[in-house]
Amino acid sequence: MHHPMRLRALITALVLATSGMAGASSPTELEAVYAETLRPFTGSRASGVDASTMQGKVLCGYQGWFNAEGDGARRGYHHWTKNGGALTPGNAKIDLWPDLSELGPDERFPTNLRHADGRTAEVFSSFNRATVLRHFEWMQKYGIDGGFVQRFIGPLHDVHNLRHNNVVLDHCREAANRSGRVYAVMYDLSGLGANRIDEVTADWQQLRTRMRVTADPAYLRHRGRPVVVVWGVGFGKDRAYTVAECNHLVRQLKADGCTVMLGVPTGWRTLDRDSVADPALHAVVQLADVVSPWTVGRYTSPAEASQHCRDVWEPDIAWCRERGLDYLPVAFPGFSWGNMKGQAFNRVPRERGKFLWSQFMAAKQAGCQMAYVAMFDEVDEATAIFKCTNDPPVSSGDQFLTYEGLPSDFYLRLTGDGGRLLRGETERQAIELNAEPPP
């Protein structure tokens, strides 16, 4: 439901809220970017994934935040470097290096790093349409159902960030339709200041009215309504916004006819660990439709993943079931924070796929029929499942992980197998938790 007066008020609130920020673009500049980049989709959809439900699906987080000098976005080597500027030795932010062997010449951007044989190391840009289309083609090829397109609300007050995010979302929309996949918008509240929660609703109204995302046949629906995800609700650290503000936001999105999924901390139910110790969080969760606790780094081995399932996922699911909520567990292939943080290099080893597969097995044992894999393209923290190389650059001051000699598409195939496991389409559900992942 869209009320013109309310929509104009929300847009005004958005531009006024951002106009006083350091480095913020003017309301006129922001409006121009929205008008330039948001328009309805006019293409056709290929047959493929049923977009009417989340049940039976494996969905990946799609960051889409990578840029390179010369890609047209004017953000430099964004997310490739930790100190800005060129990608030079000692300045790499990523712990995995993407495999670009299938990308065309117009999709590759040179860096100042070199491989062992002297070749110039190259990276991609998410601003490039061909690359995003290729990523969704990989999802199609390996049986991955689609992605949650990440949209960090905090940086959208800058025209370059807003343009990049809008363009990437448009690429994902086209890619999902062309490949028969699904997509949904995931708002990440990380870094959002206090009293700015209405910016989420204002931006969402722009996407719904100008871009008409929820009218797309590829846009994910659940419980009969379009899905919008709010990630970062109830975390106990580094959050300027409040649980009360999140309550207000969920009510707004529900009133707008959305199915709301919340990304919450691991300790959301018990109000401990990474969660705020505020019972009001439970009231917010009960307003939503789908609960997805963040578990990246919360366990570090197949045995710990199995234990986490018994200690956390199973009682979480029971709590949600009693209240009519759906539960979306998060699985991740590994984790590393070496180059970005200077710590925890290969903190959660992949164990040649055993770690990720153990989480699919645990989810199956807990009765889950859907899962969220974090992430498709997140090479910063080495949680990516897309194609990465076993031949990263050789660089002083940088260290890179590999796929341990496995094929670059191994984790794409494994994620697709995980979906089939949860849907009961494979006999691999009988595999022991410590067994080898699919070949």
Written overview of the protein:
Strands 1, 4, 5, 6, 7, 8, 9, 10, 11 and 12 form a ten-stranded mixed beta sheet that branches. The protein is 33% helix and 13% strand. It has a single domain, classed as Alpha-Beta Barrel (TIM Barrel), CATH 3.20.20.80. It has 439 residues and is an alpha/beta fold. The chain is built from eleven helices and twelve strands. The longest helix has 21 residues, at 159-179. The chain is globular, with a radius of gyration of 21 Å. It starts with a helix and ends in a 17-residue tail after the last helix.
Summarize the structure.
It is built from eleven helices and twelve strands. It is α/β, with parallel strands linked by helices and 439 residues long. The protein has a single domain (4-39, 48-430), classed as TIM Barrel.
CATH topology: TIM Barrel
The CATH homologous superfamily is named Glycosidases
The amount of beta strand, in percent, is 5-15%
Write down the Rg.
Answer: 21 Å
CATH class: Alpha Beta
The ordered string of helix (H) and strand (E) elements is: HHEEEHEHEHEEHEHEHEEHHEH
Q: Tell me the number of strands.
A: 12
Alpha carbon gap, first and last residue: 48 Å
Q: Major β-sheet, in short?
A: 10 strands, mixed
In DSSP terms, counting alpha (H) and pi (I) runs of 4 or more, how many helices? 11
Total separate domains: 1
Topology:
Elements (H helix, E strand, L loop, with lengths): L3 H16 L7 H11 L20 E5 L46 E6 L5 E4 L5 H14 L3 E7 L6 H21 L2 E7 L9 H14 L9 E2 L2 E7 L11 H13 L3 E6 L15 H8 L2 E4 L8 H21 L3 E2 L2 E2 L6 H4 L12 H12 L5 E3 L36 H13 L17
Parallel strand pairs: 1-4, 1-12, 4-5, 5-7, 7-8, 8-9, 9-10, 11-12
Antiparallel strand pairs: 2-3, 6-7
Helix pairs in contact: 1-2, 1-5, 2-4, 3-4, 6-7, 8-10, 10-11
